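Milestone 3.1: sequence recovery, worked example.
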């Protein structure tokens, strides 16, 4: 009976995740902490116990521009949107920012359903991905006036255009040019919204190279498509920053001030092995460090060229997935020292079966590039925070789980590998959504208590 209930929820209407969010999670959070309502309406102080919220800085930029250098760490498109909306409605700018981010966040969720349905092998996989994304602990950022909602919407639009390109026949030259132009413009907007140059270059170059490594017989036309797509994405993002750089110059700052300003936010390059064992911050930040790695390495284990190197991580997923997801080092050690035979999985299926399964899942590898791009994008955040945060990994979950890229890669991975790693997938996904929802409720409560959201 329980399995049927979970199956109905996961496979049912795509409105269920949103209904759960608005009819269960938010009301429950408000019941626990009524202070959420006045805070959402702007009737409580903007500052937190730590002295500020990012929204305060966005409002300051919207009203007064970049008066100090350290504010250049906040990119200009979101403050511009806040100022533009405020000029139309002439209401409290705090409420305008929150309502605008809520609207864009809901649009982002709407676009996500469309993307998941296009990349999933089965409708059930699309429904699972929609549940996980909609009830992500970081969905809170859609409702607090931060730039996450705008950036997520732009990212979903970009991913949708990328799918169009990857599915387009090379003979459709006129439509291809339009699609590449759409991607270029979208990447300009992304480059004006968040600092993503390093992440974009890492993702594009990494995706292109890994595909060349794992598929020695790839068609030259496909190679050219991936190469052109990578170049257009990188150029668009860089052009977006160039616009911002000249804006910084006009405000009396350096062209590279947004990068230099990171030092004022406590960023410092270094290698800190302690992060392999603790994030020194909430557990969800620790998960955000490991999950992109696990996703990439387990997918690499599907290919014979990498199988021997990553078989251990494959066993982590197949033998003790819950343990690995809760605390990855223990899961890895368990797989390393466990002497039990895994009778469920043949870790090295024939190349013919691998090829057949990949063709079935990703339509003759048309979406292979998308998996690597989105997974590397999530991984890039883990690497950046790992090497630049001197004291803790606080905020990493916001960058990994608060953006679409991890969820797209996860959705593609689920479609491709679910049968190999999960014994009771419906129960597993049900528990995942439940845990995620509990974290989300906690974050709404923290918002009402004016605690710092990172």
């Amino acid at each position: 009976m329980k399995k049927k209930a979970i199956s109905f929820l996961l496979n049912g209407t795509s409105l269920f995740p949103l209904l759960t969010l608005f009819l269960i999670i938010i009301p429950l959070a408000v019941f626990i902490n009524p202070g959420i309502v006045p805070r959402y309406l702007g009737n409580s102080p903007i500052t937190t116990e730590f002295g500020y919220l990012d929204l305060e800085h966005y409002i300051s930029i919207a009203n007064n521009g970049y008066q100090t250098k350290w504010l250049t760490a906040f990119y200009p498109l979101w403050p511009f949107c806040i100022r533009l909306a405020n000029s139309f409605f002439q209401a409290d700018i705090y409420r305008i920012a929150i309502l605008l981010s809520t609207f864009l966040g809901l649009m982002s969720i709407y676009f996500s359903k469309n993307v998941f349905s296009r990349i999933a092998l089965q409708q059930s996989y699309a429904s699972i991905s929609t549940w996980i994304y909609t009830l992500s602990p970081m969905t809170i950022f859609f409702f607090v006036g931060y730039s996450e909602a705008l950036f997520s919407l732009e990212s979903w639009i970009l991913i949708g255009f990328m799918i169009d390109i990857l599915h387009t026949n090379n003979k459709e030259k006129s439509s291809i040019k339009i699609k590449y132009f759409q991607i270029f413009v979208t990447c300009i907007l992304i480059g004006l919204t968040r600092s993503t140059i390093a992440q974009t270059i890492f993702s594009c170059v990494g995706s292109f190279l890994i595909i060349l490594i794992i598929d020695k017989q790839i068609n030259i036309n496909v190679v050219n498509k991936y190469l052109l797509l990578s170049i257009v994405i990188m150029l668009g993002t860089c052009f977006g920053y160039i616009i911002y750089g000249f804006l910084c110059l006009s405000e009396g700052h350096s062209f590279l001030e947004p990068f230099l300003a990171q030092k004022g936010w406590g960023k410092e390059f270094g290698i800190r092995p302690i992060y392999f064992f603790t994030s020194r911050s909430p557990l969800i930040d620790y998960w955000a460090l490991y999950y992109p790695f696990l996703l990439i390495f387990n997918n690499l284990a599907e290919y014979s060229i990498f199988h021997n190197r990553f078989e251990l991580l494959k066993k982590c997923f197949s033998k003790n997935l819950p343990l690995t997801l809760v605390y990855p080092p223990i899961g890895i050690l368990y797989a390393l020292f466990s002497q039990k035979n895994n009778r469920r999985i043949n870790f090295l299926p024939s190349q013919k079966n691998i090829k057949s399964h990949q063709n079935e899942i990703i339509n003759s590898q048309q979406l292979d590039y998308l998996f690597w791009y989105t997974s590397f994008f999530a991984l890039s955040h883990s690497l950046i925070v790992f090497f630049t945060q001197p004291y803790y990994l606080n905020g990493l979950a916001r960058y990994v789980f608060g953006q679409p890229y991890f969820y797209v890669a996860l959705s593609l991975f689920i479609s491709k590998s679910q049968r190999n790693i999960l014994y009771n997938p419906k129960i597993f996904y049900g528990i995942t959504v439940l845990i995620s929802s509990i974290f989300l409720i906690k974050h709404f409560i923290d918002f009402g208590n004016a605690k710092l959201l990172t």
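The chain has one domain: 2-448. Residues 2-448 form one domain.
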